[in-house]
């Protein structure tokens, strides 16, 4: 394979998720790692030596070097915005880890910097590649299950200990992480909600701050959604439950679709629609659904496979051979929904979507200021 058939990639960040992406690069023939970057020079040097590439300690220096045609941003998410904007303005292709940014306004700034539409700007969403979820998407998009009636998503299997939150001074603080479970653990689930069922038109949420841990950000959330067609939804997540659950239920006119633990797909299928039974059925009529266990295949390393598929699709798009799995506009949708949940709690009322990005940003900035350590204000 010639160099023209390989995407020249630099990875910015060398932490846990970056290490997983580095493993993906080794298995993709159409991706060539040319550099790594981290503000921690020792960490950057260590990874660079291991992979035989150049180390940078500042993303601007990396960009100016012209060594890479694309960057993968795998830093703490509060740095995603500035790095992406600098890379896009320099004409690079960009793949960002989730979340795309902390706020919708920052997402809009990133999209505004993406002026050259020949450059690929995408976001990593692992769950979209899981076989059970991909099949669910196929079934819903086909229309054979009819209109969605109700959505129920439970993601409470994110137990985190106090030791976890104490492992980094930036963790669980508004000013340095931008939130808790909504921006750290659950961007993938929130993306699944909008990917499978669409973006709601209204959200009301109760976010509990420090409900289970001594932290300032949300660690427990219950949200209700309303959709344009009248459908409703419930989303529940927490980092304080054990055991937790990971379950998605989507009720449609022709049946109930259930995904357990992101890997098991079941359909209770109706012969006729709920609407037909309600309007024409007798007093005790019921559609009496039958159960369909849908084989979706399995893989030993779903997470590693998901990262490879995301990076592979991005690289092929850069090389002009396809589309990324999730363009940046898709990345903003999950950020907007997370912002709406937090905003709803802060103002104690339902929030209509599209979200007023400036109004939320002003309230979010105030939240950061109110929780800023006293020594930082002096």
UniProtKB/TrEMBL annotation:
Its EC number is 1.1.99.28. InterPro entries: Gfo/Idh/MocA-like_OxRdtase_N (IPR000683), Gfo/Idh/MocA_Oxidoreductase (IPR052515), GFO_IDH_MocA-like_dom (IPR055170), NAD(P)-bd_dom_sf (IPR036291). Pfam families: GFO_IDH_MocA, GFO_IDH_MocA_C3. It is an enzyme of class 1 (oxidoreductase). GO terms for molecular function: glucose-fructose oxidoreductase activity; nucleotide binding. The keyword Plastid does not apply. Transmembrane segments: none annotated. Residues 134-257 form the GFO/IDH/MocA-like oxidoreductase domain. SUPFAM superfamilies: Glyceraldehyde-3-phosphate dehydrogenase-like, C-terminal domain, NAD(P)-binding Rossmann-fold domains. Keywords: Oxidoreductase. Residues 8-123 form the Gfo/Idh/MocA-like oxidoreductase N-terminal domain. This is Glucose--fructose oxidoreductase. It comes from Poriferisphaera corsica. The lineage of its organism: Bacteria, Pseudomonadati, Planctomycetota, Phycisphaerae, Phycisphaerales.
